[in-house]
Amino acid sequence: MRDVLFTDNDPKVCAWLQALIDAGELHGDVLCQDIRTITPEQVNGRRQVHFFAGIGGWALALRYAGWPDDRPVWTGSCPCQPFSSAGKRRAERDERHVWPEFQRLIAECSPATVFGEQVASRLGRDWLAGVRADLEALGYAVGAADLCAAGVGAPHIRQRLWWVADAGCSGDERELSLAHASGSAGEAESEARQRERRGLDAGGSGAGCGLGDAERQGRARQPHAVLGASGAPDWAKSEWLPCADGKSRRIEPGLAPLAHGIPARVVRLRGYGNAIVPQVAAAFVSAYMEANQTNPATCGKDGQ
User: Which strand ranges, in their side-by-side order, compose the sheet holding 220-221?
Assistant: First the structure.
């Protein structure tokens, strides 16, 4: 599908995306360009546009959720560094705060549906409030949910804010109700947290065993029933990785520890660390699609 476009400003990430396209894992074109310089002419006419595309997680999430290939959509997880508790927390004063540029393109191109994600910190929630106001001023209805990776059975929390803007809702439907997305994921999260705690309490093969020692110490496979979206990693075959605190934590089967000496270690760390969890995004997209089906007269306009 040449009407799909992935954009990012990191040449290494763009090369990663192109490699996935060449391998047939993704379909579309790559635009390696800072969003500040992207013009409406470069993105207009594309059925799908994935801004801040990273390693293509949103495209995978749409596939998991059953989003039709011919249904228009934009996605964009704006950089989280200005709003993350792990960073300097400069928020709008950070040069990586590029929501105004994303808003500019949305205002000029009027995509039918836009999905996004942001870190679930206090600053992230403040950011989302501003994004909601900006999008509603453009005539979009906006819905959001606070979801974590554990809610779909992943072995970590990774709490994030997920939002959607719909241009097809009437003036009386300014806020999309996606409460069932938060509720169903919350039930799964509670169970997943209990399972994860049992795993952490089980401990590892000895204190002081770091990620770099994982291969020497060996990994134990544990049967584990989990929840997840269609096409999700098979966490039932998860591997337990001994860590430096003497405990073991689950990782996706076949995932190599990113210890010193692993080829392309820094690139992988950046790719994995900035990526969304597609299974959580897929749950959110599915809830949005269900909301459209529930109230087609006011929302969605058949996705057009």
Answer: 220-221, 239-242, 248-251
Residue type, 60: L
Q: What is the spatial distance between Cα 161 and Cα 217, in angstroms, rounded to a whole number?
A: 37
* Domain boundaries, position 166: 4-187+271-298
Co-location of 226 and 278 in the same domain? no
DSSP state of 209: -
**What's the CATH code of the domain at 158?**
3.40.50.150
Whether 303 maps to a domain, the answer reads: no
Q: Please, are residues 234 and 250 in contact by the beta-carbon 8 Å criterion?
A: no
| Number of domains making up the chain | 2
Q: Is residue 265 part of a domain?
A: no
Measure the CA–CA gap between 7 and 2, rounded to whole angstroms: 14
pLDDT in tens, the chain (304 residues): 469 999 999 998 999 999 999 999 999 999 999 999 999 999 999 999 999 999 999 999 999 999 999 999 999 988 776 656 666 666 566 666 789 999 999 999 999 999 999 888 888 899 899 999 999 999 999 999 999 888 877 767 888 899 999 998 754 444 555 655 545 444 444 444 444 444 434 333 333 223 333 333 343 333 333 334 445 556 566 677 777 777 776 666 666 555 555 555 555 555 555 678 899 999 999 999 988 875 544 455 444 4
CA 273 to chain CA centroid, nearest Å: 11
Question: For residues 204 and 222, is the Cβ–Cβ distance under 8 A?
Answer: no
Q: Tokens standing for 261?
A: 């000496």
* Same domain membership, residue 130 and residue 116: yes
pTM to 2 decimals? Answer: 0.72
Q: Are residues 168 and 123 in the same domain?
A: yes
**105 and 130 belong to one structural domain:** yes
* Same domain assignment for residues 147 and 209: no
Beta bridge partner(s), residue 249: 241
- 13, 53 in Cβ contact below 8 A? yes
